[in-house]
């Protein structure tokens, strides 16, 4: 049974499918199988180089596009409002969709004006390139500034989040200010797979260690997690 986070009036599956470090063919196969077995939240990025394959997998599946919540991310090299908008148009074209569901700035670029980044993301909403905007790998201070600069709600901050990196301060900020925390690498880049403590906890409930790590993430209020396979 899928659980959801409700944000900005939409229900988003608490468990999504990440595609980091996947070559195009692997991404196509992974997303295709994921959609077949029930995933309805897919995460990619320009820097991954697999947006086209992700889009093709969604298009080729039996799942209707409105059923899939699709996230991608802007390459942080883009510095101006115009570049960010053009970048989003490129992602939309690669993905083969009329509109992206959630567009994130992938990393904060210390050489780029924060106001320009947020204005660029807001302009992407105004031009109907994306429904929602957010950030990724932002500290509490950067996230707070982004929220204050943005006309649109900051939907999420996507960051590393697993039992050994629980992001307590950032999580508390997100929960207090109604920002979803989207956690990537919930299996700690494989560290959770053979962890004895997680395995022992899982045994009590008939689950595996990796399942326990993912459940640890989703039991937190306002948290989404995006494991990959």
Describe the 3D structure.
- By secondary structure, the protein is an alpha/beta fold.
- The chain contains 8 helices and 10 strands.
- The protein has helices spanning 24-37, 51-60, 81-95, 114-126, 140-149, 168-176, 196-203, 209-218, and strands spanning 4-7, 10-13, 17-18, 41-43, 69-74, 100-105, 130-136, 154-160, 180-184, 223-226.
- Strands 3-4-5-6-7-8-9-10 form an 8-stranded parallel β-sheet. Strands 1-2 form a two-stranded antiparallel sheet.
- Strand 3 (17-18), helix 1 and strand 4 form a beta-alpha-beta unit.
- Helix 1 (24-37) packs parallel to helix 2 and helix 2 crosses helix 3.
- The relative contact order is 0.14.
- The mean pLDDT is 97.
Key descriptive features of the protein:
229 residues, alpha/beta, two-stranded antiparallel ribbon, 10 strands, globular
Placed side by side, the strands forming the largest sheet appear as 3-4-5-6-7-8-9-10
How many β-strand stretches?
Answer: 10
Low-confidence stretches: none
How helix-rich are the residues, as a percent range? Answer: 25-40%
Radius of gyration: 17 Å
Tell me the layout of helices and strands:
Layout: E1 4-7, E2 10-13, E3 17-18, H1 24-37, E4 41-43, H2 51-60, E5 69-74, H3 81-95, E6 100-105, H4 114-126, E7 130-136, H5 140-149, E8 154-160, H6 168-176, E9 180-184, H7 196-203, H8 209-218, E10 223-226
Parallel strand pairs: 3-4, 4-5, 5-6, 6-7, 7-8, 8-9, 9-10
Antiparallel strand pairs: 1-2
Helix pairs in contact: 1-2, 2-3, 3-4, 7-8
